[in-house]
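FAQ: What does the model actually see?

It sees only this:
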Amino acid sequence: MINIDSIEKGIVIDHIKAGRGMHIYNYLKLGELESCVALIKNVKSKKHGKKDIIKIDGIIDINLEVLGFIDPNATVNIVEGEDIIKKKLKLPNTVVDVVKCKNPRCITSVENEIKHEFRLTNVEKGSYRCIYCDSIYNAG
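And it is asked to produce this:
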């Protein structure tokens, strides 16, 4: 059994879909932090079979909308002493410069200054469409 100490003040990102923890770790640039960070992969979960967990010792600024785009089923727990603030994530209505349009004919593939922007079109499927060429991107 692995022993990861509890944190007094920090963030716990829980219920991450198994295998997606490293993506969140990289997106949040957690490797650049001076504080202790634990990425626990493939933890047994009664609800999902397996899950990933990230524990961050200390409070950092996290874009909850982008985190919701990466994994809308994850939960964010902000821990301060004995107080725990739980935040549920959801798919954001728009995402800008998080993913790139894969359509080689899209203007974002040709013009470097144009932001890659997608709008949510189907919540159940997690489908987004590029605002320029209407290409589909499925989150999750």
